[in-house]
Amino acid sequence: MDESHGAAEYLGSPSCSGGPSGSIDGLLKDFDRYLEGQRGCAEGTRRNYRREARAFLVYVFPAQSINWKELTAGRVDEFISSRAKKLSLVSRQNPAIAMRSLLRFLAAKGLIQVGLEGAIPPIWRTKHATVPRHVSSEQLERILALSSLAERPRTLRDHAMVLLCARLGLRPGEVLSLTVNDLDWSAGCVLIRAGKTSRERVPRWRAISGMRARSAANAPCSSVSCLRTSPSSASES
């Protein structure tokens, strides 16, 4: 059952038909009854939700005087973002989860506008969350230019790996698992072993400008990720 629909049904029951709560404490009691009666949440979950809900309501209404016009999308975003920064990677999504239930509860009760939970910002839990998920075409070209300045074997390897990811859309793990035997120089294609998609793929690289993976032909290591080339093979690429 949709959470907002369930909240509307529950709030229509006699136990919650007494109108808007006049205080934060009264509102939290209603919220707790909803979590237990409609959502079936355990005491530990309800306690965590109440804690986050109280912190949010005090943040929006510091004088304890409730004026629902002050609960805006901007305040939701500010609270979730600041709250998440203070928590560990494992726990930083907890405020967002609790706020989503609270905002849907308040909307079903007719206190705030419907859909305000959409203002909750995405919370990343990985240690690399601040790293951009994408780079522009200009940024990519600068990366490729930097990796092609030197003709050292390791630089040539890095250049080839970036090209495979950028031009063929390979995942980093797929590039790391490539071996020299997966490269078909005559056909101009590379074999991608079954992995996340559970099927093999054979993309072609002939459209790649400046492809330097040919230096793998003289590599003493079978893995593309640890290619070492001789000066002659580097110049031929």
Keywords:
237 residues; mainly alpha; 2 domains; two-stranded antiparallel sheet; 9 helices; elongated; disordered C terminus
Care to describe what's here?
The chain has helices at residues 3-11, 24-37, 43-60, 73-85, 94-108, 137-147, 153-168, 172-176, 231-236; strands at 183-184, 189-190. The chain is mainly alpha-helical and 237 residues long. The chain has 2 domains: 3-119, no CATH class; 137-236, no CATH class. Helix 2 (24-37) runs antiparallel to helix 3, helix 3 (43-60) packs across helix 5 (94-108) and helix 4 packs antiparallel against helix 5. It starts with a helix and ends with a helix. Mean pLDDT is 74; it is low at 12-21, 209-222 and 226-237.
Helix-strand category: mainly alpha
| Uncertain residue ranges | 12-21, 209-222, 226-237
Largest sheet: 2 strands, antiparallel
SSE string, helices as H and strands as E: HHHHHHHHEEH
Which strand order does the major sheet show? 1-2
- Shape assignment: elongated
Compact overview of the structure:
By secondary structure, the protein is an all-alpha fold. The chain has 9 helices and 2 strands.
Which helices and strands, and how do they pair?
Layout: H1 3-11, H2 24-37, H3 43-60, H4 73-85, H5 94-108, H6 137-147, H7 153-168, H8 172-176, E1 183-184, E2 189-190, H9 231-236
Helix pairs in contact: 1-5, 2-3, 3-5, 4-5, 6-7
